[in-house]
Design a protein that fits this description.
Elements lengths: L1 H17 L10 H51 L15 E7 L4 E4 L6 H16 L18 H5 L5 E5 L2 E15 L2 E3 L6 E10 L1 H51 L13 H51 L5 H29 L7 E5 H11 L1 H6 L3 E6 L5 E5 H18 L3 E9 L2 E8 L6 H4 L8 E2 L2 E2 L3 H11 L3 E6 L4 E8 L4
Parallel strand pairs: 8-10
Antiparallel strand pairs: 1-2, 1-6, 3-4, 4-5, 4-6, 7-9, 10-11, 11-15, 12-13, 14-15
C-alpha cells in the first residue's frame, strides 16, 4: 500500500512537470540580460573557431595534395623515360620521398644523408606503412599488374595524416613496376620488379600555427567573456536600481500618496514610463476630483426637491396646509424633477461606459425629430410656442442608438421650451460625410460668460443651473462619432449637431 501511494505521488509530480499548462516561474530581466549576451558572444566565437579550423583543414589538404602530386608528377615522368619537370612546387609544403621494395626495405631516401632527422623520419614512415600494409592492399592487387596508369595513380587516394615524434605528416604511397635507377624507378618490361614510393610532407608548422590561433581565439573569448560579464553585470545593476525606483514610484501612486516626486532615470525608456504613470496619476486625480464635484452637485440637486417634498409632506401631515391639492402638485413636480435627475445620472453613466455597446440600428433622423417634437407639443401649446420643421433631402438614414439619441434631442428641446418666445425650429440638411441638425429658439441669448460652460455638469449660469442634461447630450452625440456646438445672439440660440451617416 505504501509503495502504491509513493508511486502515485511520483506519477503526479511527473505529470506536473510534463503539463504544458503548468504555470512556470517567470524569467527575470536581470538574468536574461546577463545570460543571453554571453551566450551570443561565446556562440559567435565558437563559430569563428569552427570556421577557422574547417578552412585551415581544407587549405592544408589542398596544399598537401598539390605538393605530393607535384612530386609524383616528377617521378612519373622519370618513370616513363622523360626529363623531370623543373617547375617549382606551388605549394607551401616541401616533400621527401622514399623508395622501398616489396619487403619494405629502404632503397633510397631523397633527403640528404647528413640530415639525420629527415632520414630517421623517413624510416619511421616506412615502418608505419609496413605495419599497416593490410590497409593499403599492397600485395595481390590486380591494379598493380601491368604498366602504370599515371592518370589513375594521381587520383588513387589522398594522403593520410600520421603522428610521428609529436609531429604530423601527410603521407601517400604509390606503386611502380620496373627497375631502380639511382634515385627513381624506371619502366622496363624485361626487368619487372615492384617498388613503392612514399611521398610525405611535414604539416606540423601549419598545425602549430593552427594551435596558436586557436589558443589566441580561446584567450580572446575568455577576455571578452570576462569584460562582457563585468559590463553586463554593472548594466544589470543599474537597470535593477532603475526598476526598483520605478516600482516604488508606481506603488506610491497605487497607494494614492501625495506630493510624489518622479526620479530622473538613466534610461529614456524608464523616464517615458515614469512620465506615463505620472500623467495617469494626474488623470486619476482629476477624475476623482470631477467625480467628487459631480456627486456633491448631484446630492445638492437632489436635496433641494427632497427638502421641498419633506416640508410639504410634514405640513400636510400636521394639517397646516390650506390647499392640500396645491401642495400635492408641488410634491409631484419635485418628485418628477428627482426622477428626471436620477434618470439623467443613470443615462450618463451608461454613455460614459465604453465597455457597454450602443444598441445601434438604422433609423430615419426626420422621423425621430418629428416624434420628439410631437411628444412635447402639448407643453409647447400651453406655452404658446410653435414647432417649425425644415427637413432638407430625403436621405436622412443613420445608424444610432434610438433611445439615447432621442434623449439627447429631447434635452435640447426641453431647454428651448423654457426660453423660447414664439418658435422652435428643427432643421436638417446633408453635409459632407453626414447630416447636420439645427435646433433653434428665439429666446433670450446665452450670456458670453456662460457660452464656454454650456455643456459642463451642474454649471451655475447667469440665468440658472445648467444641470447635466446638456452635458449628457454632448456625451451621447460624441459616443455616436458626432459633434455638437452652440451659437447664440439676439436673434436665436442654435444648437448644431453633426452625425455621421456611416458607422464609426
Amino acid at each position: 500500500m505504501y509503495k502504491l501511494k509513493r508511486f502515485g505521488a511520483m506519477a503526479s509530480s511527473w505529470l506536473k512537470k510534463l503539463n504544458p499548462f503548468q504555470k512556470r516561474r517567470a524569467k527575470t530581466l536581470k538574468g536574461t540580460l546577463f545570460v543571453q549576451p554571453l551566450a551570443i558572444i561565446f556562440l559567435a566565437l565558437g563559430l569563428i573557431l569552427l570556421i577557422f579550423n574547417l578552412s585551415l583543414r581544407t587549405f592544408i589538404n589542398d596544399e598537401v595534395n598539390t605538393a605530393v602530386q607535384h612530386r609524383y608528377d616528377q617521378l612519373d615522368r622519370l618513370y616513363l623515360g622523360q626529363s623531370a619537370d623543373d617547375s617549382e612546387n606551388d605549394s607551401i609544403f616541401s616533400t621527401t620521398y622514399v623508395i622501398v621494395d616489396e619487403s619494405f626495405n629502404t632503397l633510397y631516401i631523397s633527403a640528404s644523408q647528413d640530415n639525420l632527422s629527415a632520414s630517421d623520419i623517413s624510416n619511421q614512415v616506412v615502418t608505419y606503412f609496413m605495419e599497416h600494409d593490410e590497409d593499403w592492399n599492397l600485395h595481390g592487387s590486380s591494379e598493380t599488374e601491368g604498366d602504370l596508369d599515371i592518370e589513375e595513380s594521381e587520383s588513387d587516394s589522398n594522403p593520410i595524416f600520421i603522428e610521428l615524434n609529436s609531429s604530423t605528416y601527410a603521407v601517400k604511397l604509390q606503386e611502380y613496376e620496373g627497375y631502380l635507377q639511382d634515385y627513381y624507378v624506371r619502366q622496363d618490361q624485361e626487368r619487372d620488379q615492384t617498388y613503392y614510393i612514399l611521398v610525405f610532407a611535414n604539416t606540423s608548422p601549419i598545425q602549430g600555427f593552427s594551435r596558436l590561433v586557436n589558443g589566441v581565439l580561446a584567450g580572446l573569448a575568455l577576455i571578452i567573456g570576462i569584460l562582457a560579464s563585468g559590463l553586463i553585470f554593472l548594466t544589470s545593476r543599474k537597470l535593477d536600481a532603475a526598476f526598483s525606483s520605478l516600482k516604488t514610484y508606481i506603488s506610491k501612486v497605487g497607494r494614492r500618496e501625495q506630493d510624489l516626486q518622479l526620479d530622473v532615470f538613466p534610461y529614456e525608456e524608464f523616464n517615458q514610463v515614469g512620465q506615463s504613470v505620472e500623467t495617469m496619476n494626474r488623470m486619476i486625480d482629476a477624475n476623482q476630483h470631477s467625480q467628487k464635484i459631480f456627486f456633491q452637485n448631484a446630492s445638492h440637486e437632489l436635496r433641494t426637491p427632497l427638502m421641498s417634498i419633506q416640508g410639504y409632506a410634514e405640513a400636510i401631515g400636521e394639517g397646516v396646509v390650506t390647499d392640500p391639492q396645491a401642495a400635492a402638485a408641488i410634491i409631484q413636480e419635485e418628485s418628477a424633477k428627482m426622477k428626471q435627475l436620477v434618470d439623467d445620472i443613470l443615462t450618463l453613466a451608461r454613455v460614459e461606459d465604453f465597455q457597454q455597446a450602443l444598441e445601434v440600428e438604422d433609423l430615419s433622423l426626420s422621423d425621430l425629430l418629428y416624434d420628439v417634437s410631437w411628444r412635447l407639443k402639448p407643453k409647447a401649446d400651453s406655452a404658446g410656442l410653435e414647432f417649425v420643421h425644415d427637413f432638407q433631402g430625403a436621405k436622412d438614414q443613420i445608424q444610432a442608438d434610438e433611445a439615447l439619441l432621442e434623449r439627447a434631442i429631447s434635452n435640447i428641446l426641453h431647454n428651448a421650451l423654457r426660453f423660447a418666445k414664439k418658435t422652435i425650429t428643427l432643421t436638417t440638411k446633408q453635409v459632407k460625410d453626414g447630416l447636420e441638425i439645427r435646433l433653434s429658439n428665439d429666446g433670450q441669448p446665452i450670456s458670453p460668460e456662460d457660452m464656454g460652460h454650456v455643456f459642463k455638469r451642474f454649471h451655475k449660469g447667469k440665468n440658472g443651473n445648467f444641470g447635466i442634461g446638456l452635458a449628457m447630450t454632448k456625451e451621447i452625440i460624441e459616443r455616436h462619432g458626432g459633434s455638437i456646438s452652440v451659437q447664440s445672439d439676439e436673434a436665436a440660440t442654435t444648437f448644431i449637431i453633426f452625425l455621421p451617416t456611416a458607422k464609426k
